[in-house]
Amino acid sequence: MLRREFRIILLSLAVSFILTVAKFGAYFMTHSVAILSDALESIINVVAGMFASYSIYLTSKPRDENHPYGHGKVEFFSIGFEGAMIFIAGLLILFKAAQYFFTPHTIEDVDHGLWAIAGTTVINYLLGRYLVFAGKRAGSITLSGNGQHILTDAYSSIALIGALLLIHFTGWTWVDPATSAIMGSFILFKGYQLLRKSISGLMDETDMQTVDKVIDILSRNRHPMWIDVHNMRVQQYGNNYHIDCHITMPYYLELSQVHDEMKAVDRLINRELENGETEFFIHTDPCLPTSCSCCQLLQCPVRSYPFKEKIEWTRNNVLPNRKHGG
């Protein structure tokens, strides 16, 4: 799978390089600052693609003594680097747009520049969609992040095409730096989003979508022995997940029975949770008399209180470190 990811990112890198050359060719034909802005962003595609290639290579390396959770965290460095590069490009584009507002310039050969940008836009859009699809399928945030960046490039190019058409039919040259300023602002925002995602991953921020998936899987396959689940933590390392949680079970179970129930949880999550391998660390808690009110093991031989109600598992009672019932 990772070899396929590496081939995909190399394809992205090659295509991005060719499109960058084409956009700079369009800039030298037209001297349009908006086209220059688009070309500068494409340079970032190439640099980010190179970094993404290296991060995918590192991710493919197996765990070792120094990296017991693998090398998957490098993907967050990758998208952070890409976000920083996009952010810097946005600042440069805004600076260049401000210069052109106060310095008159002539735009030449708009027709040829328009066709060149239209061609690169179509190719960029198709490439971006493919990378996002491949990234989701493989569970690779590097591929998905690179695809989102290229899609952003394609969307900004669509706005650029509209601006070039307006300049072609009206002769309003002020549209050129104005479009560049809008593109720069949009690129700044996308850079911020990638930086935010990178920081969240490096700080082990909980992925609530994955938490919801895990809770749903456990709820649909709930065993009577699993009285409650709490203190759940989910961390992502590349394509793999590491999940910690506490499960309350009847206190009188033998160790072998507890082990069997823990293995059942592990197999269940690894079978139904898509994208990669999940490492489960489960801490078992013995039940207390207060657990009887929500315990669904109706034939329990040591029940102290009658069963009252089934407690549905949600984020509100699965994430906190406290037992259910009482």
Low-confidence segments, given as residue ranges, are none
* Amino- and carboxy-terminal Cα gap: 48 Å
How does CATH name the architecture of the largest domain? Up-down Bundle
Backbone CA Rg? 27 Å
Largest sheet: 3 strands, mixed
Structural class: mainly alpha
Q: What is the string of helix and strand elements?
A: HHHHHHHEEHEH
Helix count from the secondary structure assignment = 9
What's the CATH first level of the largest domain?
Answer: Mainly Alpha
Shape: elongated
Task: Please estimate the helix content.
Answer: 55-70%
What is the assigned CATH homologous superfamily of the largest domain?
Answer: Cation efflux protein transmembrane domain
CATH fold name of the largest domain: Alpha-lytic protease prodomain-like
Lateral arrangement of strands in the main beta sheet: 1-2-3
The count of strands amounts to 3
Short description:
By secondary structure, the protein is mainly α. 63% of the residues lie in helices and 9% in strands.
Overview of the molecule:
The protein is mainly alpha-helical and 326 residues long. It has 2 domains: 2-202, Alpha-lytic protease prodomain-like; 208-318, 2-Layer Sandwich (Alpha-Beta Plaits). It is built from 9 helices and 3 strands; from the N terminus they run αααααααββαβα. Strands 1-2-3 form a 3-stranded mixed β-sheet, with helices on one face. α8 links the parallel β2 and β3. The longest helix has 30 residues, at 141-170. The mean pLDDT is 81.
